[in-house]
Design goal:
single chain, eight-stranded antiparallel sheet, four-stranded antiparallel sheet
């Protein structure tokens, strides 16, 4: 009789442990990707040469809940709000409160030429930044690294990016293997 009770208790303990592991696995499979990291793939060449078409990326989604993006961070964001079906990958150029202008092929921030080692090409289309554009609180100006082949903050269909629309920071190129590295 005692052996049956002990066996039954052992089975119940095993079932409870199994349920705990199932809950942990479900958490990791559903909530972790939704709130902590996301895998995504580059579609197009607007971020060349840093990122290339079909690169698989890991996007970290926690940091910007605790700090603001820095200049030159590569971010993913929803253009025109979180209801958008797709998100973009671009580099942060202008920060909240700054005045951005693109003139004579160069980016000016608060009247000074932006010194950046990402793109040496002159920008052919200034778009919305042809005149001075002052960013509001929690607004960012983003550009693709391939400045003359990028749909970014210069164009009305993207415009300035609000912090609430930023998904996360591109952290790692996961594949192809020969390009694998931290960013």
């Amino acid at each position: 009789m005692r052996n049956k009770k002990a066996l039954k208790n052992k089975r119940l303990k095993w079932i409870k442990e199994l349920l705990i592991y199932v809950v942990i696995i479900v958490f990791c499979a559903t909530l972790f990707p939704k709130y902590v990291i996301r895998r995504t793939q580059v579609d197009g060449n607007s971020m060349e040469t840093t990122l290339q078409d079909k690169d698989d990326l890991i996007v970290e989604k926690v940091t910007y809940h605790f700090k603001d993006p820095d200049r030159f961070d590569i971010i993913t964001f929803y253009p025109k709000g979180r209801n958008a079906k797709e998100y973009y990958i671009k580099r942060v150029i202008g920060l909240p409160g700054e005045t951005i202008q693109i003139h004579d092929g160069k980016v000016y921030i608060n009247g000074s030429v932006l010194e950046d080692d990402v793109s040496e090409d002159d920008i052919l289309t200034a778009g919305l930044a042809a005149g001075e554009l002052t960013l509001g609180e929690n607004e960012y100006f983003v550009l693709g690294d391939n400045r003359n082949n990028s749909e970014d903050s210069r164009f009305a269909n993207v415009g300035v990016v609000k912090k609430d629309d930023i998904v996360g920071s591109v952290w790692f190129i996961a594949s192809p293997m020969k390009r694998m590295r931290l960013l």
